[in-house]
Amino acid sequence: MHLLIVDDHPLFREALATTLALAYPGAVLHEADGIAGACAILARERAIELVLLDLSMQGVRGFDGLLTIRAQFARVPILVVSGLDDPRIMRDAIHHGAAGFVPKAVDKATLTRAIADVLGGGLSLPPALADAGDRPDRTRLAERIARLTPQQMRVLGMIRQGKLNKQIAHALQVGDSTVKAHVTEILRKLEVGSRTQIVIQTAGLDFDHIQARP
Fold first, then answer.
1. 214 lies in a domain?
2. For the segment 135-150, what is each residue's pLDDT rounded down to a tens digit?
3. CATH number of the domain enclosing 41
4. Range(s) of the domain holding residue 194
5. Which residues fall within 8 angstroms of residue 114, CB to CB, at 6 or more apart?
6. What are the CA-CA distances from residue 81 to residues 36, 91, 115, 196 (Å)?
């Protein structure tokens, strides 16, 4: 496993590298102190499976660093590890293509779990997103989810796990076109525009108390 840490603070890079080495003893760790260096490493080391990126680095404005890496190396997921903990920034990072967001203040277990989620193909969303004040009313959202059929609920569950259409089709033993139709209906019924928004909107909901339409 090859992982890339991108942060302009040497002490934090060292601390993060120590955590990763303990969690993944066999991992090969790469480090960069800026976006240009990160892109050079990614171009050279094709085996890198995950980028751990700080948003606030010298010479980087807003999400420019995230967007630069996403544009050039779309195959590599990016987990933002940032000192910023504003839910709006977390949400915007996901919308700009990050596969997850972890505040630097979290404990090692939370960070390790987030890394595992992203490496497994899913999204890692911090609890703050579930409690953000600008989220749609949960009662209304639960009512929209309840409009889904049982099969659409199964598809929704797998979307929330980060599974692709082909993986969902294989699990449900249906064709790709059937899964695409279900996804289209889920987007329509939940009144959202993308799979990422599905995951963000439904984060923190208790699905055990939501009954699908027969």
1. no
2. 445 567 777 888 888 8
3. 3.40.50.2300
4. 138-209
5. 79, 100, 102, 106, 124
6. 18, 13, 10, 19
